[in-house]
Design brief:
Subcellular location (chain B): Cytoplasm, Cytosol
Mean pLDDT of chain B: 78
GO molecular function (chain B): guanyl-nucleotide exchange factor activity; translation initiation factor activity
Family (chain B): Belongs to the eIF-2B gamma/epsilon subunits family.
Largest interface: A-B, 50 and 45 residues
Structural class of chain A: alpha/beta
Radius of gyration of chain B: 24 Å
Helix content of chain B: 25-40%
Number of domains of chain B: 2
Largest sheet of chain A: 9 strands, mixed
Strand order of the largest sheet of chain B: 5-4-1-6-13-8-14
Oligomer: heterodimer
CATH superfamily of the largest domain in chain B: Spore Coat Polysaccharide Biosynthesis Protein SpsA, Chain A
Structural class of chain B: alpha/beta
Keywords (chain B): Cytoplasm, Initiation factor, Protein biosynthesis
Distance between the termini of chain A: 111 Å
Low-confidence stretches of chain A: 1-16, 443-473, 522-548, 721-725
CATH architecture of the largest domain in chain B: Alpha-Beta Complex
Radius of gyration of chain A: 36 Å
Strand content of chain A: 15-25%
Largest sheet of chain B: 7 strands, mixed
Number of helices of chain B: 11
Low-confidence stretches of chain B: 142-160, 250-281
CATH superfamily of the largest domain in chain A: Spore Coat Polysaccharide Biosynthesis Protein SpsA, Chain A
CATH topology of the largest domain in chain A: Spore Coat Polysaccharide Biosynthesis Protein SpsA, Chain A
Protein name (chain B): Translation initiation factor eIF2B subunit gamma
CATH class of the largest domain in chain B: Alpha Beta
CATH architecture of the largest domain in chain A: Alpha-Beta Complex
Helix content of chain A: 40-55%
CATH class of the largest domain in chain A: Alpha Beta
Chain lengths: ~725, ~450
């Protein structure tokens, strides 16, 4: 409490201007993800106990002591539970902190939430200035007043500085700096002088590559850039009101980082800037997944989060006594003499510990009853859990009301949701998630929303389910109750990463291996033979190959369309429409269309059964006659006509050699049907005149025709002259 | 010091046409009337590096350079001159002279550097970290390649179009990323594995790789052998080494030998290098190495020259002008001459006509004659030049034995040796090839005079 008062006093002492502006915060009491499923199907994440205290209490207690005067708690999933909890908690009547709730059921992302708040804002204008944006699962003890001051001053100097993001150096880890919290690798670039955020990249979200890509303009405008991999994003943001309106303007912004931050960084029209603030000694972390749940719990037990530790009352929690070796024990714990409670353990009120139990590095909630000879290591047992004799529990999360029957074993990484019953001697396989509720169907899971229904609905379904379950037995042994959720594909290899269980050795090796694989891939593709050569090779790769591929697809599509048109006798105009739409979708020139159509026509001619060259010629000319309208639409320019001829030549040389001998004849047909104009042929001939001998085969074939054309045109000219005369 | 020094002196660089010629290879271009190579040799001598190999492209050029070296410094230094084929690139040149290399470490210096950064310091850094490669970086601006060459002079305030992108670790001792001018037209890509190992990387675009490298000989030779396509040290070898520093492909076999034989000694060396580098924390290389997969790593280090140091490569015409101006101007301690009280050097044997002024930051070589009413500003004039009356020479370089007729005006230009300007020629930002004659009365701007 002392700390809180101090915080409050400091703020009120500050400058006049600041006292006019209340310090406000928006607390998102919904993470808009499904990482805590199945637990969050029944209880909102912010109410899940973290070392026996609901997460939201940590966040609110911190905000209060940091001098925040008004918090808007945005509830979405299970909003009634959250509101009920806040109504009954001491926050309701707290002297320094006003807690208001905003309820919305439509929001499925942080972006939606902020848009909703913005809409409300226009009516009530509750948020007057800069605000702190946090999520309800943040555990921190950092002071905010100075940071807000810094943000305001920066904002005054630079209108565009709309947000300050808190980052913290993560503990060094050999393999990945982020694995401690189970989040994805984060790469951020910061200007070393101004601390402006220049680049933000999360692995996985941006499809993992072996390298971080910084825009070239970044390097042009900044002589020096700091690129961090060992920072963690605390998801504590000091925002100016513009942030809300930005969300309103960009209705597709959903995720705070993936969309909003990246959007701001990429957008250079508005020129908004985001700055970072690195915290050194204070603590800040977010419980994002089961692994960070584990990590943050341990940090709390080891008192990194002081004053938010189990033996201090900070938000309606009942403090437990701290003993030696970091063992916190409530005063009324009944512990057998032969039980061995080891270091870094918390045992809550009214819990009974039986004979010969071994408990280490674990948190045990209130009102639990633990039988004899039970082993609990690195696990989180919530309230009112019954564990019968001889069970072994390692690195698991066991929610309220669970019953684990005698001899059952929980392998590492197991999560048992509310009121699950594990059968006698049953072994729950590693990383399984067990719930009384059935796993939602695939259709539901693609919207990242936890069930926002009111509690009663869930309860009804629950009771129905358990009835059903009793009749047909359970996946957890004959006397158990609960469904083992299937891990959806894709997330499977992620399971170990987010789980409470420590990362197994082989996975660590795998990560490094993967890292090297990237390297290898990278090297194969990028290793320059020489600096100069490399840039050339690259430009070939990017500039020529890709469109080439595209063109290949395009050609196929056009061919398909054309064949269908022939088969179904579609009108030329409709064919034009279809090919136009293809052209737009592949971003092709009309010359490409002409080439592709002509290719399809000739291919059709070749594919039509024929016995002799003359027959082939006949089919070809009839096809040309029939579809010249379609082709003619795209060959209005000389260039396009030349493209057709080039294509024809290419075909004769490569794909359809049968056409070779007919080149001149078919060209003549094209000329007669006005598909190809005289100019185009002449220019083609000119272009080809300089080519290799091998390339000139068709030119020579057409020589007589071209000669004839020339003479004809000369005659025409003469005619013209005569006429003029 | 057990360092062998290789000076890559180039040949008849095309960037410097028409300043270089059959007579004057790049290494012998005069900077304040001394061949540019002499600055490098002096610099090395000042660091007590006396075992030198000068690599010259082309036999003819090698003869010329060798001739000059034997006349100039045979008594002070132990210099070998090796000729390699033209256009083999820097890596190719090293490949060609590989059999000459015997020392444990090789210092490679570009022959066109005019600098006062001590190569000894680079070598010491290299040794201290037991690095595989150490590169010297200096602050910008170092004039880039010749893009701005002919027209240049005015856009000095602009940022050069080419610069290197360099990634350093937080202690600024290790090189984590390098992208040279050729690559940076694209977005910068930083390898995640290196970034993850180091945790933090500072990416700078205001530093320039200045072509002084120290290599471990074994590493250098392995890379040259294994990658026959590598042509350039800067663009191929160095980036390759930096890229693969955490998973050395270069010496897997060598390491095993060492492991068998001299394990103890290696440990000692590690401890020693620890003490030497004052590292209270092990470097990230060691952390990474001691990790799960006990990989072999090697270190790429940097020596960052102090910002007050001067370092310019003479690799373009613009750079040639700049270097000449700086050596008699801002960086005059490099020239080795003593300046008069007017901040200029006029050789006692030079003859000045009446009412002729030679301003500060000028140099007038031995036996040159300047007629009446001339004005020379911020220019270098070579030996035995004949300059008529009423001539203005500003911001220019006039090489030995040039003849300039009466009434000429020369600004921002280079007049090579034996060239002749007839009367009343006005040149601005021009280059005149050796022995060329510019006819009377012409007015030229931004032109190059050379016989085809």
């Amino acid at each position: 409490m002392g700390a809180q008062k101090k915080g409050g006093a400091r703020v009120s002492d500050d400058s006049e201007e600041q006292s006019r502006q209340r310090l406000q915060a928006i607390l998102l009491a919904d993470s808009f993800t499904t990482k805590f499923r199945p637990v969050t199907l029944e209880r909102p994440k912010v109410l899940l106990p973290l070392v026996n205290v609901p997460m939201i209490d940590y966040t609110l207690a911190w905000l209060e002591s940091a001098g925040i005067e008004e918090v808007f708690v945005f509830c979405c999933a299970h909003s009634t539970q959250i509101i009920d909890y806040l109504e009954t908690s001491e926050w309701r009547t707290h002297p320094n902190l006003v807690v208001r709730t905003i309820e919305s059921h439509k929001s499925i992302s942080a972006g939606d939430a902020l848009r909703y708040i913005y809409e409300q804002q226009t009516e009530t204008s509750q948020i007057q200035g800069d605000f702190v944006l946090v999520s309800g699962d943040t555990v921190s003890n950092m002071p905010l007043a100075d940071l807000i001051q810094e943000h305001r001053e920066r904002k005054k100097r630079d209108e565009k500085a709309i947000m300050t993001m808190v980052i913290k150096k993560s503990k060094p880890s050999l393999i990945t700096h982020q694995s401690r919290l189970g989040t994805d690798q984060l790469f951020i670039a910061v200007d070393p002088l101004t601390k402006q955020l220049l680049h933000y990249e999360e692995d996985k979200v941006d499809h993992a590559r072996g390298s971080v890509c910084l825009d070239k303009s970044l390097m042009e405008s900044n002589p020096s850039v700091l690129l961090y991999n060992d920072m963690q994003d605390c998801y504590i943001d000091i925002c100016s009101p513009e942030v809300l309106s930005l969300f309103e303007d960009n209705f597709d912004y959903q995720h705070l980082r993936r969309h909003f931050v990246k959007g701001v960084l990429v957008d250079d029209i508005m020129g908004y800037k985001i700055f970072t603030h690195e915290i050194g000694s204070s603590y800040a972390a977010r419980v994002d997944n089961f692994r960070s749940y584990d990590t943050v719990s341990k940090d709390i037990i080891q008192r990194w989060t002081y004053p938010y530790v189990p033996d201090i009352n900070f938000g309606g929690n009942r403090p437990v006594k701290l003993g030696r070796q970091g063992i916190y024990r409530a005063c009324d714990v009944v512990q057998s003499r032969s039980a061995d409670v080891g270091a870094s353990t918390v045992v809550g009120y009214g819990t009974k510990i039986g004979n010969g139990d071994r408990i280490l590095n674990s948190v045990i909630g209130n009102g639990c009853s633990i039988g004899s000879n039970v082993v609990i290591e690195g696990s989180y047992i919530w309230n009112n859990v019954t564990i019968e004799d001889g069970c072994e529990i390692r690195n698991a999360i066991v929610c309220d009301g669970v019953r684990i029957r005698a001899g059952a074993v929980l392998e590492p990484g197991v999560v048992l949701s509310f009121k699950v019953v594990v059968g006698r001697d049953f072994v729950v396989p590693a990383y399984s998630k067990v719930s009384l509720l059935q796993q939602p169907m695939k259709e539901d899971s693609d919207e990242e929303l936890e069930y926002a229904d009111s509690g009663s609905g869930t309860a009804d379904r629950l009771s129905g389910l358990s009835l059903e379950m009793e009749s047909k037995g359970s996946e957890l042994g004959p006397d158990g109750a609960g469904y083992i959720w299937e891990v959806c594909e894709g997330a499977h290899d992620e399971e170990w990463k987010h789980s409470v269980a420590p990362i197994p050795e082989d996975k660590l090796a795998e990560i490094t291996q993967a890292m090297d694989d990237y390297d290898d891939m990278e090297d194969e593709s990028v290793v320059p033979t020489s600096g100069e050569l490399k840039s050339d090779a690259d430009s070939i790769n990017t500039d020529v190959n890709d469109p080439g591929d595209d063109y290949g697809y395009f050609e196929k599509e056009v061919e398909g369309t054309f064949l269908r048109a022939v088969e179904e006798g579609i009108k030329v105009e409709l064919g034009v429409l279809e090919i136009n739409s293809l052209r737009l979708s592949y971003n092709m020139e009309s010359a490409d269309c002409a080439g592709a159509i002509f290719y399809s026509m000739m291919k059709l001619a070749v594919d039509t059964p024929h016995s002799s060259a003359s027959e082939l010629y006949k089919t070809a000319s009839s096809i040309i006659a029939k579809w010249k309208g379609l082709l003619g639409f795209y060959v209005k320019q000389t260039d396009e006509q030349i493209e057709v001829m080039m294509k024809f030549e290419e075909m004769c040389q490569e794909t359809a050699k049968e056409l070779g001998p007919l080149f001149a004849q078919i060209l003549h047909v094209l000329y007669e049907k006005d598909v190809v104009q005289e100019d185009a042929i002449m220019r083609w001939a000119e272009e080809k005149a300089g080519a290799d001998e091998a390339d000139k085969v068709y030119l020579q074939q057409c020589e007589t025709f071209i000669q004839w054309l020339k003479e004809a045109s000369e005659e025409e000219d003469e005619d013209d002259d005569e006429e003029e005369d | 010091m057990d360092f062998q020094v290789v000076i890559l002196a180039g040949g008849f660089s095309s960037n410097l046409q028409p300043l270089v010629s059959k007579e004057v290879p790049k290494a012998l271009l005069p900077v304040a009337n001394r061949p540019v190579l002499s600055y490098v040799l002096d610099l090395l001598e000042s660091s007590n590096l006396k075992d030198l190999i000068v690599v010259v492209e082309g036999e003819d050029a090698a003869l010329k350079v060798g001739g000059w070296i034997s006349s100039a410094c045979v008594d002070r230094l132990h210099v070998e001159v090796a000729a390699v084929a033209e256009n083999v690139g820097t890596a190719g040149a090293l490949r060609a002279i590989a059999h000459h290399l015997t020392a444990k470490d090789i210092l490679i210096v570009s022959g066109d550097i005019v600098s006062d950064v001590s190569p000894g310091a680079v070598a010491a850094t290299h040794r201290r970290h037991d690095a595989s490669v150490t590169s010297m970086l200096c602050a910008e601006p170092v004039s880039g390649p010749s893009e701005s060459g002919v027209a240049g002079g005015k856009d000095k305030t602009k940022k050069p179009a080419c610069y290197d992108i360099i990634g350093l670790d937080s202690s600024k001792q290790f090189l984590l990323h390098i992208a040279t001018a050729a690559e940076i037209k694209k977005d910068t890509r930083i390898k995640k594995s290196i970034l993850c190992a180091a945790g933090k990387m500072e990416i700078r675009s205001d530093l320039m790789d200045s072509h002084i490298y120290a290599f471990k000989r074994s590493v250098l030779q392995k890379v040259l052998d294994q990658k026959p396509t590598f042509r350039s040290l800067k663009q191929d070898v160095l980036p390759y080494l930096v890229r693969t520093q955490l998973r050395s492909e270069v010496f897997p076999d060598e390491k095993t030998v060492e492991d068998n034989g001299k394990n103890n000694m290696q440990n000692n060396e590690v401890v020693l290098s620890h003490i030497l580098s004052n590292a209270s924390l092990p470097s990230f290389h060691q952390v990474y190495e001691s990790g799960l997969n006990s990989r072999k790593t090697y270190k790429c280090c940097v020596y960052i020259a102090d910002e007050s140091k001067y370092c310019v490569r003479l690799n373009s015409i613009q750079a040639f002008m700049d270097v000449n101006r700086d050596v008699i101007g801002d960086a005059n301690h490099l020239s080795g001459y003593t300046f008069s009280s007017h901040h200029n050097i006029v050789h006692p044997s030079a003859e000045l006509g009446s009412k002729t002024t030679v301003g500060p930051h000028c140099m007038l070589g031995e036996g040159s004659q300047v007629g009446d009413k001339c004005s020379v500003k911020r220019s270098v004039i070579g030996r035995h030049c004949r300059i008529g009356s009423n001539v203005k020479v500003v911001n220019s370089v006039v090489m030995d034995h040039a003849t300039i007729g009466d009434g000429c005006s020369i600004q921002g230009s280079v007049i090579c040796s034996n060239a002749q300007l007839q009367e009343r020629v006005a040149l601005r930002d021009c280059q005149v090839e050796a022995g060329y004659v510019v006819y009377a009365g012409g007015e030229h701007k931004g032109e190059t005079f050379a016989r085809k």
